[in-house]
From TrEMBL, chain B:
Protein name (database record): Indolepyruvate:ferredoxin oxidoreductase, beta subunit
Database matches in InterPro entries: IorB_Oxidoreductase (IPR052198), Pyrv/ketoisovalerate_OxRed_cat (IPR019752), Pyrv_flavodox_OxRed_cen (IPR002869)
Pyruvate/ketoisovalerate oxidoreductase catalytic domain: residues covered: 12-177
Gene3D superfamilies: Pyruvate-ferredoxin oxidoreductase, PFOR, domain III (3.40.920.10)
A GO MF term: oxidoreductase activity, acting on the aldehyde or oxo group of donors
Entry keyword set: Oxidoreductase, Pyruvate
Organism, as annotated: Geobacter metallireducens (strain ATCC 53774 / DSM 7210 / GS-15)
Gene transcribed to yield this protein: iorB-2
NCBIfam families linked: PRK06274.1-2
Pfam families: POR
Length: 605, 181
């Protein structure tokens, strides 16, 4: 490949992986990291590479699979979002002690903002906690380069390396000249060494000592040393930046005319911070501005609270993205210059995120509300979190927690004797990811609630990756399947029925039956099965299309727009009634059964 | 054409990422460095979607408020939400039935692309109608990509997709024709 291509940061990292001869990549989808693995699968096919590429059932499993490949001497990587690393933190912490053989990269994508996440946590702190070096790219191009640097670092010191891009790197596109692909000719060869790979606590003490020795050397490793980006005149003040904050700072310095007067150091390895660098900046400069997302990881290591301006000093906000306009203000203030005030955004406006027109989850939530109007509704992580708009979601904690929280609500209320209806919702991918262990707990402890598995035959929110039930994996390759109903029954669930939420009257009846069962007999599972409307990979049959129109019976009561909240149902202020937005209506026809005045009618095609 | 900073704004499902990609690849074909920034996931579901595009010597993927040369709004309601990105005198191209208020000092170009897309029988072509309109409007000024450059990008990109390529070019041309009228 010899021409510049527009690559998403995630595609660029994926290309870096195949350039570096990585053999095994495993991932679980999560925004903003999802396109890394799907792109690796595409490059693998295009270059016909000997690789194992998989969507694992969750991040812990993904990390453990990739790590074992590294133990067998191959280059391996795992990719996830920051909250995914929480799931994988158990093996991650331990792998730092045991070390690696083949280069091992943990790509953990952070989401300052947060645009699509439960938290703004900083994976670099996790790296610091695990005592693993972390690389922090400023752009898609640098992310691609650091994949290769990361493997070299990993193999030079036999240590896992974290690559930590953020949303603005993962989901930025840049023109990139991809490097040559180097297919690996390594063969897996696991050399037994129980004292290391199965170390008991006594040996772990020794491994911890070795880890500290490695970190001291990594803090002096030349290829990842901080770089002075502008040949600045001797100055009293300097900026130290990492990640996309360094890219923003570079542009802002140019625009403010400070490029020749204010030194900008870019740190690509925020932990461990290079020892000579720490000494140099603290000796050379009276004041240091530290720009980094999201936590003050470099600032913690530049331990001089009187001269270092950053998050801990209160100069830089600790919450939210460091936007370029924010950085402009910080740099101007640090340099003691005035800048014209930037135009302010309009007051919050626009549309809130909502379930797509025709989304089967909307019908499921509507039926759940009808079946258990006074219920408690624990839910989970995925598109269906947006069921909150419909009043069908009361809690969202983390992957799989809908089931365990439903157990908790049941046991908590049972102590007082009055148990409300509890209807938990969880997506199909999330159920496989983290819903099974708490389902087992529910059965064993006789927690009585309804669990609705919203089975839209995909992992929708992250871009329609496969689930274990579908029979295909990364890059569309065939896989074996796991039967959801069989799995639920094997956990000991007596009531397990499947329904199609788009058939609203029948599905509402099924929900009522499940709620009644849970009140008297125990745990009930309903599988709400209907494909995602935006999933282009879905191969099976779709429900029949039912084109609808609004009749003169509409009196503008807005029940449909407030209670059903389909974006294709629009209240027309002038006509004082509801109209169909035919540009986005999917002809699902579910709203026919929603209007209390029967004013939504099916019409011929 | 020198450096360009653009904001492209709409709601989920309107094809903003494709539109951004067409413009970005056009910039690459002209030998310009390019960066774009987009949102995915939760933010995408029916909510407001914004895409930043910077062609030229830039290092940050984001446009700062008051710096954008142009705003392409695929929904009229988005103009109010994102107009603060415009530099003084920055232009607006908006899919609307009438010009939105509050844009004094900005050249505003209005096209009813919703109606045109429905007439074309291809609601998904909204983005291409809009881009065709925009490039034709700026054809003479040299402030933006030219119609031929964008047509070239679409032909390269969809070279192996006969029907889709023809439908895309038809939508692009429809937008261009409406700019002439």
């Amino acid at each position: 490949m010899s021409e510049r291509m527009l690559l998403l940061g995630n595609e660029a990292m994926a290309h870096g992986l195949v350039e570096a001869g990585c053999n095994v990549v495993a991932s679980y989808p999560g925004t903003p990291a999802s396109e890394i693995l799907s792109s690796v699968a595409q490059w693998r096919a295009r270059y016909d590479l000997p690789m194992h590429v998989e969507w694992a059932v969750n991040e812990k499993v993904a990390l453990e699979i990739a790590y074992a490949a590294s133990q067998a001497g191959l280059r391996a990587a795992t990719a996830m979002k920051q909250v995914g690393l929480n799931v994988a933190s158990d093996p991650f912490m331990s792998a730092a002690y045991l070390g690696v053989k083949g280069g091992f990269l943990v790509i953990s994508a952070d989401d300052p903002g947060p645009h699509s996440s439960q938290t703004e946590q900083d994976s670099r702190l996790m790296a610091m906690g695990a005592k693993v070096p972390v690389l922090d790219p400023d752009s898609p191009e640098q992310a691609r380069e650091l994949v290769k640097v990361g493997f070299e670092l990993s193999e030079a010191f036999e240590i896992p390396v974290m690559l930590r891009p953020t949303t603005r790197v993962c989901h930025a596109n840049q023109d990139i000249l991809p490097g040559p692909v180097a297919p690996s000719d390594r063969k897996a060869l696991f050399e037994k060494n129980p004292a290391r790979w199965a170390a008991t606590p006594k040996f772990r003490h020794r491994l911890h000592l070795e880890l500290e020795e490695k970190l001291a050397k990594i803090a002096a490793w030349e290829p990842t040393a901080p770089r002075l980006l502008n040949p600045a005149a001797p100055a009293r003040r300097a900026i130290v930046a990492s990640g996309v904050a360094a890219a923003h700072a570079r542009e802002v310095l140019n625009d403010l005319g400070l490029r020749e007067t204010l030194p900008l150091w870019q740190v690509v390895q925020p932990y461990p911070l290079h020892g000579d660098f720490v000494t140099t900046v603290l000796e050379q400069y009276d004041e240091i501005l530290v720009l980094e997302e999201t936590t003050g990881v470099m600032e913690l290591q530049l331990a001089d609270r009187y001269r270092v301006k950053g998050k801990r000093s209160g100069f830089v906000p600790e919450v939210g993205e460091l936007s370029p306009e924010l950085i402009e203000g910080l740099i101007a203030s640090f340099a003691g210059i005035e800048t014209p005030e930037a135009p302010a955004p309009a007051a919050e406006g626009g549309r809130r995120p909502t379930l797509c027109p025709g989304c089967p989850h909307r019908a499921s939530f509507y039926a759940i509300k009808r079946a258990a109007p006074k219920g408690i509704f624990p839910s989970d992580i995925g598109c269906y979190t947006l069921g909150i708009n419909l009043g069908g979601v009361d809690t969202v904690l983390c992957m799989g927690a809908a089931v365990s929280q439903a157990c908790g609500f049941y046991h908590a209320h049972k102590i007082g004797g009055e148990v409300p209806d509890i209807v938990a919702t969880i997506g199909d991918s999330t159920f496989f990811h983290a819903g099974i262990p708490p389902l087992i707990d529910a059965v064993v402890q006789d927690a009585r609630f309804v669990l609705v598995i919203l089975d839209n035959a995909t992992t929708a929110m992250t871009g329609n990756q496969p689930t274990p039930a579908l029979g295909w994996g990364a890059g569309g390759v065939p896989t074996a399947t796991v039967n959801m109903e069989g799995l639920v029954r094997a956990c000991g669930v007596k009531f397990c029925k499947v329904g199609r939420p788009g058939n609203l009257p029948a599905f509402t009846d099924l929900m009522k039956e499940a709620v009644a069962f849970a009140r008297t007999d125990g745990l009930a599972v309903v599988i709400a099965r209907q494909p995602c409307v935006v999933d282009r990979t879905f191969k099976g049959d779709r429900p029949p299309r039912r084109k609808v129109a609004i009749s003169d019976a509409c009196n503008g009561c807005r029940y449909c727009t407030t209670q059903f909240e389909c974006p294709a149902l629009v209240y027309d202020e002038e006509e004082k009634r509801v109209a169909i937005d035919t540009l986005i209506c999917t002809d699902c026809g579910v709203c026919i059964d929603v209007c209390p005045r029967l004013a939504i009618e099916e019409v011929g095609q | 054409m020198t450096g360009q900073q653009l904001i492209i704004s709409g709601v989920g499902g309107q094809g903003i990422l494709f539109l951004t990609r067409i413009l970005a690849e056009t910039a690459i074909s002209l030998g310009m460095p390019v960066m774009t920034s987009e949102t995915h996931g939760m933010a995408q579901r029916g909510g407001v979607v914004i895409s930043h595009l910077k062609a030229g010597e830039f290092s940050s993927p984001l446009v700062r408020p008051g710096r954008a040369d142009g705003l392409i709004a695929m929904k009229a309601e988005n103009v109010a939400i994102h107009r603060h990105f415009l530099r003084p005198g920055g232009w607006v191209v908006v899919n609307a039935k009438a010009a939105p208020a509050g844009l004094d000092g900005h050249p505003v170009h209005v096209i009813d692309a919703d109606t045109l897309a429905l007439e074309l029988g291809n609601p998904q072509s909204l983005n291409l109608i809009l881009i065709g309109y925009a490039v034709a409007r700026f054809a003479a000024s040299g402030d933006f990509f030219s119609p031929d450059q964008v047509i070239g990008t679409i032909e390269r990109r969809l070279v192996e997709k006969g029907k889709l390529r023809d439908a895309s070019l038809a939508a692009l041309r429809l937008g261009m024709e409406n700019a002439a009228g």
